[in-house]
Amino acid sequence: MKIYTYLVYLVVFISCHVETSTESDSKLLSQTIDEFNEAFEKVDINKLNQLTTDRYTHINGSSQAMTKKAWMTYLKKRKKQLENGALEVTKYQFKDKQLILYDQSAYVTGVIEMDGVLNGEVFSRRIRVSHFWVKEEGQWKRAGFHDVRIQ
After folding, report:
1. Quick one: how far is CA 114 from the chain centroid?
2. Backbone angles phi, psi at 90, to 5 degrees
3. What is the pLDDT averaged over residues 64-93?
4. What's the average model confidence in pLDDT over 45-72?
5. Which of 59, 61, 81, 147 could share a disulfide with 86, CB 3.0–4.6 Å?
6. Looking at residue 137, what DSSP letter applies?
7. Residue 21: strand, helix, or coil
8. Chain centroid to CA 21: how far?
9. Around Cβ 145, how many Cβ atoms within 10 Å?
10. Cβ-contact 96, 24 below 8 angstroms
11. What own/partner pairs with CB < 8 Å and gap ≥ 24 does 134-138 have?
């Protein structure tokens, strides 16, 4: 009887300290999104390549849908603008992050606030974004993106 009581206490104790897979997936996805946004701000092309699926689709409110290859080409241009001073980002924040998780995918929404200078002109933008994320081999990767300017 003592062993049975001990086992019950042990199971209850362990279960109180173990996160559900949804909670751990949510935390991991949130951290991955933060890594992604930091990589985008710095234009870390290698990191962004690792964090997007091979069939990634990127849609801005002001452009055609881009394949991963086209988006990577855009990123190279953006990186050159940062390096030569044509682009300076003074603020880049992802706010109001909402995660909706499914089995191996997630729908993410939020608002990006961005300030800076492009070709000598000061800009300030707020855009509403939606992302589609999938889990590939245990790693969250962004599979789709869409934005619309709200300010």
Report:
1. 15
2. -100, -20
3. 95
4. 94
5. 81
6. T
7. helix
8. 19
9. 21
10. no
11. 134/53, 134/104, 134/105, 134/106, 135/25, 135/104, 135/105, 136/53
